[in-house]
Structures are given as C-alpha cells and as structure tokens.
Amino acid sequence: MKQHSRGVLAVLFILCLLTSMAILGQDLLVSEMSASMVWHIIIQLQLPLVLTAILVGAGLSVSAATLQVTLHNPLADPGIIGISSGASLMAALVLLTLKLDHINYFYFLPLACFGGALLSTWLIYIVARRLRASTTAVILAGIAISTIAGAIMAWLYILADAQALRNLTFWLMGSLYQTDWWILAVAGPLIVGGIAYQLSQASALNWLYGGSTLAAAAGAEPARLVRNNLIVCALCVGAAVSVAGSIAFVGLLVPHFLRMVIGFDNRLLLPASALCGALVLLLVALFSELVSWMTLPVSMVTATIGGPLLLIALYKGQWRMS
Amino acid sequence: MITLNEIGIDKRLHGISAEIDRGMCCHILGENGAGKSTLLQVCAGLLEPGRGECRINEQPVTAMPAPRLAGFRGFHEQNSTAAFDIPAHSYIQFYAGRKPPHDKLIAALDIGRLLARPVSQLSGGEKQRVNLVRCIAQVWEAVEKGQAVLCLDEPLQGLDVRHQQSLLLFLRELCQLGNTVIMSCHDINISARFADTTLLLKNGRCLASGPVHQTFSIDLLETCFGIKFVITNNQNALQIHPQWPSA
C-alpha cells in the first residue's frame, strides 16, 4: 500500500516535469527565431506560465483537500466557503466600474482580488465564530457571502457595458496568462508557504476524520487546527485566485479522484493533491499553448475534461479501496 | 487512580467527587441527560470543568500535555461518524500511530471481517465495534503495560448479546492488567455483574458512588431512575427487575 502510493507520487512528479519541459521546450523546436529571442520568450512568458500553473493548481487542490477534512464535508471547496466569491466580486467591481485600460489593471486587479478574498474570509470567520465555529456554520456563512457577492455582481452586470462584461467573463473563467515575475514574486511565497503549512498538519488532519472530539482525544487542538487551516487555505486560495481568476472544479475533483486511488491518509493525499493539481493545470497550459490560435479559459477546459472523468470514476465505484 | 474533586460545569454537573482506583471498572449510570457524557469528557480531559478538578495519578488532567494524555487515555465517543468512505483499517490506523491494531484487539471485538469495508457503510453495531477498536488501539502500548485509562461513552450501545459479552469480558481482562475503565451504561444488570465501582448521577449531581452492593439499593435506584425496582439475590448475583406499571 505504502509503495503503491509512493509510486503514484513519483509518477505524478515525473508527469509534472515532462509537461513543464514540453511547455518550455516547444519554442526551441521552432528554429526560425534567434537563440536570444527564444530564451527571452522562455524566461518572460513560458516560465511564468509554467510556475503559475504549478502554483495555482497545487494551491487550489491542497487547500480543497484540507478544507474537505477540516469542515468534515466532502463537498467543500474554496468556492463553497466563499473565498473565491469575494475575489470575483472585487474583480467585477474593478473591471466593470473603474474602466481602466489593460496596462493599469494588470497589477491592480490581482491586488484587489486578494483583498476581496481576505475580506470575505474575515466575514465568514466572524460569523462562524459567533456560531461557535461549527463546520456547518462555516459552510452556511460561506454560501451566504457567495449569495451576496453574486447579487451585487448581478446588479453590476445590468449596468455594465459589453466590452467590460467580456473582460469579466474571461476573468471569471480563469486564465494562466495574467502573470509576470512581479506578481509571482508576491503570490508564489504565499502559496508555497500555505502548502508547506498544510503538509505539516497532515497527521493532525487525519485525526479530524472522526470529528473534533476524537481529534482532541488523539492529541490535537481541534479549535486551533480548524481556525489555522481556514486562515491558511484562505491565503493560499486568495493568492491563487488573484493570479489566475476563479478556476472551477480542480479543487473538488483532484482530492476526490486521488482518494479513490491512494486512500485517505493526508500525509500522502496532500502532497499527491499538490502534484496532481499542478499536473492538471500544466496540461491545460500545454493544451492552450498548442491551440494557440485562441485563448482557452481554464475553467472551460478543466470542467470539460474533469466533469466526465469524475463521473466515470464515481460510476466505476471505489477504484481501489486501499 | 482517578480523583474527581467537586467537579462542576455551569448547569450540567454539580459538585461531583469520586475516587476510582487503578484497575477498576467504573460504571456511570443515570437518566438520559443526567450528565454521564459530560462527566466522561471531564475525566478524559476533553472538557475543562468550571469548578473543581479531575486528577489522574495526582496530576490535574487539564494540565497534562495533549500528546502525553493521548498516549494512555482512550476516549470512545457516542455516535461518532466519519464523513468520508474511509476503510475501517485506515481509520483505526490514523489514531493508532500508523500501526495496525493488535490481533488480540481485532479478535476481542470481532472486526476482522470489517477492516476492509468503509466505516460509513457499516451497521450501527459494527461501527460501534470499529470505533471501540480505534479507541483502544490508540493507547495499546499503555494497555499492554496496564497503565491505560479508557473513558467509554456507552460502549454497549448497538451491540448484540454475544458482542456485549465479549466486550465486557475483554474489558475485565484489561482491568486485571491494571488498566482503568470508566464507562456509561444503561443496563443495570450488566453493571451489577461487571462494575467494580459505580456512580449514580441524577440531574448533574452524584447520588451515590461506590461498589455495587452499596449503590444498587432499591431506594437509590428508584430515586435515580424514578421507577420501581425489585432486586433479587440469586447465588450472590444481584438481579434487578424494573417494575412495570400494572395495566
């Protein structure tokens, strides 16, 4: 069982490596450009693209896996507790009301989204704390916040002009091309730090499977664990969403898929989620690079491929009860 | 030894004092909502009492570092469920420090056939047995040395007669090794047979505590449960019959 899981981790890692190399290397094959030009493209465009895909995919998947266990709800994903809706609302406000041109909002948009994600998490947190931080309360508060954000966005939709709406629609469906080294320099450490913290909590997370009382009996401090996990996931997801827009389904699909393959041990599941999430977005990035005549929104690709995949996995039942 | 000293928690428990010696099996009895589960959580160090304190071997249980406590104190929660389809053996191992449960434990609770199945798909009694194994496996090293304290909230709930028997005999065996068991129980006759010491609770207060022959008097039981009892002594084994109101 252990070996089987290690094998899965190794395979995922190698696939990530190969996909990254394919994305980076594809320009080297086009020999018409000069070497310095190719290097410039790789360093300024392809490398940020690869890093964005890895960071966003890993951050979203690990956070979703953590949230599902923390909130005792297999359906939890960063969307359901309202983190991404705060970011989306801010994106809508910036894109629909400020009427900035592309150059001006290149840095402003991610900053505003990150602020929105933190704001919605903070709201959820105070509501949930008044309700004694029961996991259901967190989810309900998240849904309430999402609903409010959705309502405000609907009002903005009515008032907005067509071009701004198109920009927003594309942002909402996610893109891996909105970053550069400066944005990555801020978001990267946040996401990497968040993932590292979550990995360090993996065995305490295993104790949460039986509920918070049993976690306490096993030697954890569940109240602190749940609070810290919520905050870290919010930071991680907030950073990911600010960088790449809201990307659907990855958080929900990847951990569920992996639980069927390698089981429930978070010490393996979390690293595997990081690798698998990164791999999924790397594949999306590779796919969009190959289909270069049009921009493919990430959510569109992840949903198109991920939805049927999960359905097949569910239909076939538990692939391997580890 | 577990010492309860004037335990009080707002409106749930009031001034409960008792001593449970090492190697004893203590049964807590009382009506629904009398405070049995709350008292067990206090004994397990999971709930800090507003007044008084619980000591294990002279050390206040709330002052012990959680990981140390987790090494020798097992806690079985009523109706605990896992939200995911975790196979029973991984579920148990998460709490037992990566080690599979000892064969003796698997045999005592007869869960060999359940290990590969998801906990969420087991029947009530099967789930209960898996959870009991989870609880005891967590402190198995201490159990083998006879130093464990097991706080079990209604461990017999949902078990059929055969599994009730094997659990009770197994717990008695553990007590003979020096382990201490505190459990809540609704079956007075089982308590009469298996409890070394008892604690009768009524509305969060301790009605009586001590060995069965002191606490299981008609007066005390009738005050505790609010119905009539008949007690017979058959070859030195107490048999307690609740009386039904005549139709």
From TrEMBL, chain B:
Residue ranges annotated for the ABC transporter domain, each copy included: 4-228
The UniProt keywords, alphabetically, are: ATP-binding, Nucleotide-binding, Translocase, Transport
Q: Which SUPFAM superfamilies match?
A: P-loop containing nucleoside triphosphate hydrolases
Q: Which CDD domains match?
A: ABC_Iron-Siderophores_B12_Hemin
Q: Does DNA-binding show up as a keyword for this record? A: no
Q: Which InterPro entries match?
A: AAA+_ATPase, ABC_transporter-like_ATP-bd, ABC_transporter-like_CS, P-loop_NTPase
Pfam families per UniProt: ABC_tran (PF00005)
- A GO MF label: ATP binding
Described function: Part of the ABC transporter complex HmuTUV involved in hemin import. Responsible for energy coupling to the transport system.
Q: Give the protein's recorded name.
A: ATP-binding cassette domain-containing protein
Originating organism = Salinimonas profundi
